[in-house]
Amino acid sequence: xxxxxxxxxxxxxxxxxxxxxxxxxxxxxxxxxxxxxxxxxxxxxxxxxxxxxxxxxxxxxxxxxxxxxxxxxxxxxxxxxxxxxxxxxxxxxxxxxxxxxxxxxxxxxxxxxxxxxxxxxxxxxxxxxxxxxxxxxxxxxxxxxxxxxxxxxxxxxxxxxxxxxxxxxxxxxxxxxxxxxxxxxxxxxxxxxxxxxxxxxxxxxxxxxxxxxxxxxxxxxxxxxxxxxxxxxxxxxxxxxxxxxxxxxxxxxxx
Amino acid sequence: xxxxxxxxxxxxxxxxxxxxxxxxxxxxxxxxxxxxxxxxxxxxxxxxxxxxxxxxxxxxxxxxxxxxxxxxxxxxxxxxxxxxxxxxxxxxxxxxxxxxxxxxxxxxxxxxxxxxxxxxxxxxxxxxxxxxxxxxxxxxxxxxxxxxxxxxxxxxxxxxxxxxxxxxxxxxxxxxxxxxxxxxxxxxxxxxxxxxxxxxxxxxxxxxxxxxxxxxxxxxxxxxxxxxxxxxxxxxxxxxxxxxxxxxxxxxxxx
Amino acid sequence: xxxxxxxxxxxxxxxxxxxxxxxxxxxxxxxxxxxxxxxxxxxxxxxxxxxxxxxxxxxxxxxxxxxxxxxxxxxxxxxxxxxxxxxxxxxxxxxxxxxxxxxxxxxxxxxxxxxxxxxxxxxxxxxxxxxxxxxxxxxxxxxxxxxxxxxxxxxxxxxxxxxxxxxxxxxxxxxxxxxxxxxxxxxxxxxxxxxxxxxxxxxxxxxxxxxxxxxxxxxxxxxxxxxxxxxxxxxxxxxxxxxxxxxxxxxxxxxxxxxxxxxxxxxxxxxxxxxxxxxxxxxxxxxxxxxxxxxxxxxxxxxxxxxxxxxx
Amino acid sequence: xxxxxxxxxxxxxxxxxxxxxxxxxxxxxxxxxxxxxxxxxxxxxxxxxxxxxxxxxxxxxxxxxxxxxxxxxxxxxxxxxxxxxxxxxxxxxxxxxxxxxxxxxxxxxxxxxxxxxxxxxxxxxxxxxxxxxxxxxxxxxxxxxxxxxxxxxxxxxxxxxxxxxxxxxxxxxxxxxxxxxxxxxxxxxxxxxxxxxxxxxxxxxxxxxxxxxxxxxxxxxxxxxxxxxxxxxxxxxxxxxxxxxxxxxxxxxxxxxxxxxxxxxxxxxxxxxxxxxxxxxxxxxxxxxxxxxxxxxxxxxxxxxxxxxxxx
Lengths: 255, 255, 312, 312
Ligand SMILES: Cc1cc2nc3c(=O)[nH]c(=O)nc-3n(C[C@H](O)[C@H](O)[C@H](O)COP(=O)(O)OP(=O)(O)OC[C@H]3O[C@@H](n4cnc5c(N)ncnc54)[C@H](O)[C@@H]3O)c2cc1C
Ligand SMILES: Cc1cc2nc3c(=O)[nH]c(=O)nc-3n(C[C@H](O)[C@H](O)[C@H](O)COP(=O)(O)OP(=O)(O)OC[C@H]3O[C@@H](n4cnc5c(N)ncnc54)[C@H](O)[C@@H]3O)c2cc1C
Ligand SMILES: Cc1cc2nc3c(=O)[nH]c(=O)nc-3n(C[C@H](O)[C@H](O)[C@H](O)COP(=O)(O)O)c2cc1C
Ligand SMILES: Cc1cc2nc3c(=O)[nH]c(=O)nc-3n(C[C@H](O)[C@H](O)[C@H](O)COP(=O)(O)O)c2cc1C
Ligand code: FES
Ligand code: FES
Known about the structure:
- The complex is a heterotetramer, with two copies of chain A (255 residues) and two copies of chain C (312 residues).
- By secondary structure, chain A is an alpha/beta fold.
- In chain A, 17% of the residues lie in helices and 35% in strands.
- Chain A has helices at 30-34, 77-83, 119-126, 144-147, 168-174, 188-200, and strands at 7-18, 21-27, 40-43, 54-57, 60-62, 67-73, 90-97, 107-113, 130-137, 152-157, 164-165, 181-185, 204-208, 224-227, 238-240, 247-249, 253-254.
- In chain A, the strands form three sheets. Chain A has a seven-stranded antiparallel β-sheet with strand order 4-3-7-1-2-6-5. A seven-stranded mixed β-sheet of chain A has the order 11-10-9-8-12-13-16, sandwiched between helices. Chain A has a three-stranded antiparallel β-sheet with strand order 15-14-17, with no helix packed on it.
- In chain A, strand 8, helix 3 and strand 9 (130-137) form a beta-alpha-beta unit.
- Chain C has one domain (17-62, 84-207, 224-306): TIM Barrel (Alpha-Beta Barrel), CATH 3.20.20.70.
- Chain C is 33% helix and 19% strand.
- Chain C has ten helices and 16 strands.
- Chain C has helices at residues 4-12, 89-101, 116-126, 148-151, 154-167, 183-192, 231-242, 258-267, 277-280, 284-298, and strands spanning 17-19, 22-24, 28-30, 52-54, 71-74, 77-80, 106-111, 133-137, 172-175, 197-200, 204-207, 209-210, 215-216, 222-226, 249-252, 271-274.
- In chain C, helix 8 (258-267) crosses helix 10.
- The interface between B and D is large, with 36 and 42 residues.
- The site of one FE2/S2 (inorganic) cluster (FES) has 12 residues of chain B, from loops.
């Protein structure tokens, strides 16, 4: 019967790439075949005290070798546990989940902030149009070299240690970047800024949102965001980030 | 300040020696130096859902290499978890705990039943007097070869597959075994039989008892057995198996 | 798909139970609010294997629910303050019901309201629908009106039960709150009001504080605690209620495995619901059924009904 | 032993709190019944580091407690039905008290009885002893008489509090039961009766069934649930009570770490007790203190009193 299931997946590689940021490759089997940029996996902890899944976006998909790459930051006990995984260990996962990015546009602006940067890598890879890439960090950078293959990369850091001191919007304005489609993922204040910029410049924008999740598959209604229109499923102004999202058009949601 | 503590101990070896019975060697450091036959260790689970320690008696002590051997049977989820330990893994332990066997007597009868057999091995090793060893199993035997170094070994099995068909008391009676001291560990019905035999034959007997434990160090009063005299500590007819025991003289306790 | 042994077992084992004259193929249903409208789990489990599907609470009009964050993880459990978001009875009847009916399982509809009248209106709307039982949720801790306010007071439990009964053409289950001094009192009140069955427990009110931000983790401040952490409380309450009333009980609270379910059955539950476990393992419901069957075969118990309330 | 940084922190940080005119060097004490008479943990922790030691419940005469098994493990917690075994007030005064007094910590004596008179008699016997506070346990779920029966009814809570107060020369803490519909009612009743402080929560009544033997796991059938599983309920109740009364609160229920303790403090507790955690880690009390201090340094909070009830 079951087409989808929770699976025990082998860890191929797990490495610290920056203070508190880890790079994890999974032997994901069918999950890799089905995965789309912008979708996420639910990862489960080993420690029985922590029951809920941790949603982590897909950073890269290698359909040929059926591998999926995740890049995550250690935030609490669950991600701390993941940081200790070694090659050959096993991890319970479910996915790919949610609705990812829609590949579209002629000139794209990819805007990532902090740990919102990883999900944009596979997007950048799959997106064939012309693109500018703006990455905002607090201080230390990661993954930026890998983006260079896919477009021109602009960097901002809060402390000015790399690239421009400031935020992604500062970089965009300074460089007069423009596009007919924006793809963005990052902290909510940044997404608000991106939405505002997109509106002001009449650019279509796809934003990847975050919320605490329990089921990850649309059943519990934990992860809603406010939607502009009454949503078809909920019949109220709510959309489920795990199901209708995590990627939404900026004008669909109130953030 | 602390002399005693909960420690993270390295697993040297963990091997199945019989269906559901495992042999575990720990790199026990100071614990090994202090350990006495009949004492136990509190082992903690890795899975955060299972919080209480599992008491496991010490089977062998290697003071020179500071190693402790435990032999345990998989009963529930906790021991199932221990069964999966591999050399090099770490395990949280506390101990050695409780009061072990008092080495005494001129002619000893060592009587073990099932998973009560392991704690008698170190005793047999340290006890210098003459001794007969009676081991009762349900079917498959384990550790019996190792006891042969220390005395004459008699075996009973419930199904008669090895040794005499029947229980340890049958073997003792059949072979007219006698002694001035009995040391015994095993299931409660067997210990009752041993106590009865000891009383009838006026033999002093030390019995190792079992009860569910929470603290393992005498604080919670979970693990009491009924004592004949009003106990000094509790001021009622109760003794703590983890503290005054697990080894008691047969006439101290009501079982 | 299934191997021979389990096929044979199914022939030998009777897992059928009945409540209020209805027969369920096995005692396992889903806990309201944890299984969506069933559709979401259709990819993971065969809904036709379940004794029943219990739906998310449904109200007269659409409810938007509480602001986020709506959930928080706790040790061995979770808090939720969804606030009974639901699309309202019309969408439920038009969209969710036909989907559920296309499976060979019973349908239990969880009903919520802000006033006694609203409960009755939903019950009335469902009277002529093809559903099997109604579960009246008078115990949700996450909405200001209705919900738990009804469920904590025996007099009000009896009153709302008898009101709802007037409008109901289907058997009525009253879902009890565990946030009470003596659950056998509210249970007896529901029985006196004419309830056909009881379900328990709903969630226990709890709170989590984010110490770094020094703020409540949930937007709603408090939420309902569920998951394995609460199982011992739930089993105790089922045992207590089974000894206080004659009507059948649907037991829930932290069921993750067949073994957990059997504790509730032995304590006196005729059926059990799997809730939070669905989030941790989307195949949990089927695995609970498998676990119960495996226990029965292992212990040569051929009729599940022999296990109901058998603890000594 | 200690490094410089922690020495310095101690100078900079004020962890002193006060209750009923008494000053405690830090807000951490032990939960009654989980720390023996203190002696058992003396090998593992430096008792002089604790704000206070709270003793096991002590009664007039020795109590033998319940038959075994007295405990059962549950998911993220445990059930206990020790039944308040204790050697009686005489042995306590002769043996345990001098040991505790030899350490630089406050002593809180937990008092139990089967009747109101018995509580009063124990309190009277302790009047002239060198103890700091008395904690009246009217909430133990594991004894037939006294205990929880008193603690679930507001009228009786007020009555017993005022009776006990007549005999007490030391400040009185009333320990509340969580097995109630509305804990702020019993809290207000204790305050009205003259309690100097409240402690909460005692254990939640639970049950575990051994499905293989089809019997209750505990000889007493039911037991009290404690440990991290219950923390969200305890934090909620502390917050609720802090908003209902003016007297200080000692919070407990599942505290394993300094972070857990801080949740209770932010919810409104002036002190916290570490209970079940001692069984899991005998150094838990000291580690909770270390954790609180580390949080304070990290967040540059120099006075713990600023954190009491600060959640928003
Ligand atoms: C769709 C989606 C995609 C994500 N992709 C990534 C990614 O690619 N890389 C990455 O580092 N992080 C990502 N996150 C955030 C990540 O899920 C959290 O950092 C992680 O769950 C924290 O777990 P923890 O146990 O370490 O923290 P704790 O705070 O101990 O977790 C406690 C609970 O809160 C939840 N939680 C805590 N923070 C968040 C958060 N920000 N979002 C959702 N749930 C949270 C946890 O899942 C858990 O249930 C994503 C979140 C979402 C919703
Ligand atoms: C002093 C002492 C020495 C022991 N020595 C040995 C030994 O050398 N080898 C061995 O195989 N077993 C020994 N046991 C029994 C062993 O402790 C249990 O088999 C084990 O705790 C079961 O844990 P579990 O998680 O597998 O079972 P579960 O049933 O899942 O455990 C649940 C809880 O019950 C407790 N529990 C279950 N059975 C027992 C029991 N028989 N005695 C005490 N607590 C129990 C567990 O510790 C745990 O807290 C000893 C017990 C005691 C008291
Ligand atoms: C996310 C979530 C939503 C819930 N929604 C409802 C609901 O709509 N109606 C209801 O009666 N109970 C609701 N409940 C309570 C469950 O049905 C169940 O009573 C409770 O969670 C205990 O079972 P569990 O521990 O197996 O989850 C909800 C529980 C959760 C976790
Ligand atoms: C084994 C055990 C014995 C207890 N004995 C007592 C007691 O004698 N008096 C009392 O007031 N509370 C007693 N309690 C309750 C605890 O003091 C505490 O209120 C409860 O366990 C919750 O805290 P925790 O989760 O940190 O353990 C006992 C708890 C346990 C686990
Ligand atoms: S996490 Fe359950 S609906 Fe999104
Ligand atoms: S286990 Fe706590 S006193 Fe023995």
